[in-house]
Amino acid sequence: METEKRKHARSGLQMDNQESQFYVSKDQETINITKIRDVSFSGVGLEMPRPFPVGDKLALTYEENDGFQVQVNGTVIWCDSDAGRHTLGVEFERHNGQDASLLFMALRKYIDEFDGAYYDA
Asked: How far is the CA of 25 from the CAs of 44, 112, 119, in angstroms?
């Protein structure tokens, strides 16, 4: 039986009709995130249009229309692909603690009690 390895509780997100963007950048590529599985102070679970190899370094950015922006660097710690759907877990870099907290707080207005469901971003 696999034991839970998360350091922080995760929360699901509801991001309908938001006036913000949440996206991933790697090298010169930027991909808008449309499905967020969960978020915590230490990481995020995402559904992406393509897979990312475990160990890939990503920049996650949250940007609001009023100009507020926060960026957190992270590492892909798992990636599963099934029927064209790619889900991945990203662990935030430890030295990004303040930015990770800002990202979590910025997304707080979208947080619902986590029930394992997918939410459209």
From this structure: 15, 26, 21
Tokens of 41: 């102070």
Does any domain span residue 119?
no
For residues 113 and 19, give the distance between their C-alpha atoms in angstroms, rounded to a whole number: 21
pTM, 2 dp:
0.73
> Which value, in Å, is the radius of gyration of the alpha carbons in the chain?
13
Q: How far is the C-alpha of 112 from the C-alpha of 104, rounded, in Å? A: 13
The CA-atom distances, in angstroms, between 118 and each of 19, 45, 46, 67 are 19, 10, 9, 27
Note the residue count of the chain: 121
Host domain of residue 69:
12-16+33-114
pLDDT at position 111, please?
59
